[in-house]
Design a protein that fits this description.
- By secondary structure, this protein is α+β, with helices and mostly antiparallel strands.
- 26% of the residues lie in helices and 27% in strands.
- It has two domains: 142 residues, Nucleoside Triphosphate Pyrophosphohydrolase (Alpha-Beta Complex); 74 residues, Arc Repressor Mutant, subunit A.
- The strands form three sheets. Strands 3, 4, 5, 6, 7, 8 and 9 form a seven-stranded mixed sheet that branches. Strands 1-2 form a two-stranded antiparallel sheet. Strands 10-11 form a two-stranded antiparallel sheet.
Length: 241
């Protein structure tokens, strides 16, 4: 690599190496759905700064890593979770966001069926647990701000894409689907209007199966038809709730 010592920013006569001195990190916002609540996966830190505080899953990016690899690697390193699709959603660069020095972090988020994943804390994470987004512990660094931006991004995603289906089991009832979207968006839908709208989209496949082990009349089960959705999307269909 060529030395940058001899190069200057012409307008300010500042050595260009001064622009290569701050850190870069990634932070992962992993959303799940349990017991009618939207939850986020957090880890408890065993290191300073913010030792014993809960935090999003993140760490500094190593010099030879690209961002996507860094996000996936830190998720696996701290929780054991892997093969999870994550999407970059925002960069956070406040000068004082890290107490040791300047660190810019890039946020990634994912939506998973939390019942399918069993996080196991490792490396410097003392513990890994799912927390309701409405009952959060005090978070390290500016992770509350990052999480709120992640929640905002999630709400936008589920209004315009069938992202919410990833939080449910493969087979679900229309009531379970409605309760999920009410938890995601924070308001109640009219039952008949919600069912009418979602069925008219023609992206659900009705099954010849019913909900089992319930005290009331068992409801019919459905599953999301991803192939059908992709065909409709190519023809201009837009998912909108």
């Amino acid at each position: 690599m060529k030395s940058t010592n001899a190069y200057y920013i012409s307008d300010y006569n500042i050595p260009i190496r001064e622009y290569f001195i701050f850190g870069l990190s990634v932070d992962c916002v992993i959303f799940g759905y349990q017991e009618g609540e939207i939850k986020v996966l957090l880890v408890q830190r065993s290191l300073e700064p913010f030792k014993d505080h809960w935090a999003l899953i993140g760490d500094l990016v190593e010099p030879e890593q690209n961002l996507c690899d860094a996000a996936n690697n830190v998720l696996e390193k701290l929780t054991g979770l892997k093969n999870i699709y994550m999407k970059q959603f925002f960069a956070f660069g406040s000068i004082d966001r890290h107490p040791l020095d300047r660190v810019v972090t890039v946020g990634y988020f994912s939506v998973v069926n939390s019942l399918s994943y069993n996080p196991i804390a490792s490396s410097w994470a003392k513990s890994a647990e799912w927390f309701s987004i409405n009952e959060l512990p005090e978070l390290a660094f500016d992770h509350y701000t990052i999480l709120q931006k992640g929640i905002e991004t999630l709400k936008h995603e589920v209004r315009h894409k069938p992202t919410g289906f990833e939080l449910l089991p493969t087979k679900f009832t229309l009531l379970e689907l409605q309760l999920l979207y009410e938890a995601l968006l924070g308001y109640k839908f009219d039952k008949s209007n919600f069912r009418k709208k979602i069925l008219e989209m023609n992206i659900l496949q009705p099954l010849n199966e019913f909900k089992e082990n319930v005290a009331h009349r068992p409801a019919k089960l459905f599953q999301f038809d991803e192939k059908r959705y992709k065909v409709l999307e190519e023809k201009g269909f837009s998912f909108e709730l």
